Amino acid sequence: MSAPKTTTFHVGMTCDGCANAVKRILGKMEGVTAIDTNVPEKKVVVQTEDHVQATDLLTALAKWGEAAGKEVKMLA
Predict the structure, then answer these.
(1) Label partner for 72 (CA 20 to 30 A): which of 14, 51, 54, 66?
(2) Membrane spanning segments where (predicted)?
(3) How many CB atoms lie within 10 A of CB 15?
(4) If you average pLDDT over every residue of the chain, what do you get?
(5) Which runs of consecutive H residues, i.e. helices, occur in 1-76?
(6) In whole angstroms, what separates CA 39 from the centre of its chain?
(7) The domain containing residue 70 runs over which residues?
(8) Burial label, 69 (beta-carbon count in 10 A; 0-12, 13-18, 19+)
């Protein structure tokens, strides 16, 4: 088994409702093992199994961000 990957995003979350939406969206994705949201810092850290592509995470978050009017970008 390979080590988990960590990907960090800047997400324009303004409240716990935003954070919960982000967790719900990412939590439905296969291979996501942990999600940590920080609303004040507008940061989301996602741990995934090795096969998960960061671009797939970004696509899912960007779709929500567009609908919610929130900025989403990958940091690392």
Answers:
(1) 51
(2) none
(3) 9
(4) 95
(5) 16-27, 54-68
(6) 12
(7) 5-74
(8) exposed
By the 8 A CB rule, do 13 and 75 touch? no
Q: How far apart are the first and last CA of the chain?
A: 23
> Number of structural domains, the chain?
1
User: Is the Cα dihedral 34, 56, 76, 71 positive or negative?
Assistant: negative
Return phi, psi of residue 63, to 5°: -60, -45
> pTM for this structure?
0.93
pLDDT band at 76; cut points 50, 70, 90: confident
Task: Give residue-wise pLDDT tens across range 3-35.
Answer: 789 999 999 999 999 999 999 999 999 999 999
